[in-house]
Amino acid sequence: MLRIYWDAIEGIRLLEPALSQVKLRSRSLADQSERASTSVVLNLSEGAGSAMGIVVCATRRRSGRRAKCGRRAMLSRRLARVGPEIRARLNKIIGTLVNILKR
Fold first, then answer.
1. CA angle, residues 20, 14, 21, in degrees to nearest 5
2. Are 22 and 74 contacting, i.e. CB atoms less than 8 angstroms apart?
3. Distance CA 78, CA 65 (A)
4. What is the pLDDT of residue 66?
5. Neighbouring residues of 91: CB distance < 8 A, sequence distance ≥ 6
6. pLDDT of the residue at 79
7. Which pLDDT score, from 0 to 100, does residue 21 have?
8. pLDDT per position in the chain (103 positions), as tens?
9. What is the pLDDT of residue 16?
10. pTM score
11. Are 56 and 97 in contact (CB under 8 A)?
12. Half-sphere exposure of residue 32: CA atoms within 13 angstroms, side-chain side
């Protein structure tokens, strides 16, 4: 299992309070952000030890970027306060996946 799997799990925990706020004003954005962050975790788990590592890794990276864009949308629409720790965690996950793809 990649070490960033646990970062993704923690990211979901950190994002939950913001998602609860967003659900009150934009259920669709909350739903998309929730699915994207869950998708990161599921893709990381699925890709662990996979023979199709590059393909799975690219899918993980796309999920991470969707989650990051969801955070940006929440901030730009002032729907919730999303702390810098979530941004840092998403950047770490995406950066790790980008580095894996470069190998």
1. 15
2. yes
3. 20
4. 72
5. 68
6. 78
7. 87
8. 667 888 888 888 888 888 888 889 889 888 888 888 888 888 777 766 554 454 555 566 666 677 766 767 777 778 777 778 887 887 887 788 777 666 6
9. 87
10. 0.68
11. no
12. 13
Q: Helices (H), strands (E): how many in the chain?
A: 4, 0
Q: Which amino acid appears at position 89 of this protein?
A: R
Q: Which CATH number fits domain 4-102: 3.80.30.20, 3.50.50.60, 1.20.1440.60, 1.10.238.10?
A: 1.20.1440.60
Name the residue with tokens 């890794």.
Answer: 57
> Which residue's structure tokens are 């954005």?
29
Locate 22 and state its tokens.
């967003």
Task: At 81, give phi and psi (nearest 5°).
Answer: -90, 120
Task: Report how far residue 28's alpha carbon sits from residue 85's, in angstroms, rounded to the nearest whole number.
Answer: 24
1 DSSP assignment: -
Neighbours of 57 (CB within 10 A): 22
Q: Which two tokens stand for residue 7?
A: 């970062």
SS3 73: helix
